[in-house]
C-alpha cells in the first residue's frame, strides 16, 4: 500500500493542504492513518475520494452539506458492490439488489432536486434576458438613427 504525504495529495487533487485537513475535520473525508511521528499517511483511496468530492463540488455544484450526503450514498454503493459478488443465495442477492436500488433512488433524488433548482435559476435568467432584450429593442426603435457622422473632437496638430 503506497502512502502519500499531504503535499502529494494536494498536488494530485489541486486542493490546498488546509482544505484537505478541513475536509477531514468535518468528516467529508475519512481520517488517514498517521505515522509514529504523527504525519498523515494518505492512500490512493483517499485521493480517489477527494476527486469524487471535487467532482461533486465543481461539476454538480453541491454545497459541502450536499457533498456529505452524496458521499454517504456513494460509499453505500461501493459497499454493496463489494459484497454482492460474494453472495451466493438468490434471496440474499435480491435483498442486496433492493438495498442498492434504494440507495440509487436516494442519490438520484438528490441530483433531481439540484437539477430542478438549476433549471429554475436558468428559467429566471432567461426571462430576465428576454426583458432586457425587449428594453434594448424598444430603446433602439425610439432612438432616432442619424446617418451623419459624429463630429470629431480631436484635430491633429492642436494642443489642449
UniProtKB/TrEMBL annotation:
InterPro entries per record: DNA-bd_dom_put_sf (IPR009061), MerR-type_HTH_dom (IPR000551), MerR_fam (IPR047057)
Biased composition annotated in UniProt, kind: Polar residues: 143-160
GO molecular function, one term: DNA binding
Keyword DNA-binding recorded: yes
Domain of life according to the entry: Bacteria
Region (Disordered): 137-160
HTH merR-type domain ranges (all copies): 3-73
Keyword annotations: DNA-binding
Protein name per UniProt: MerR family transcriptional regulator
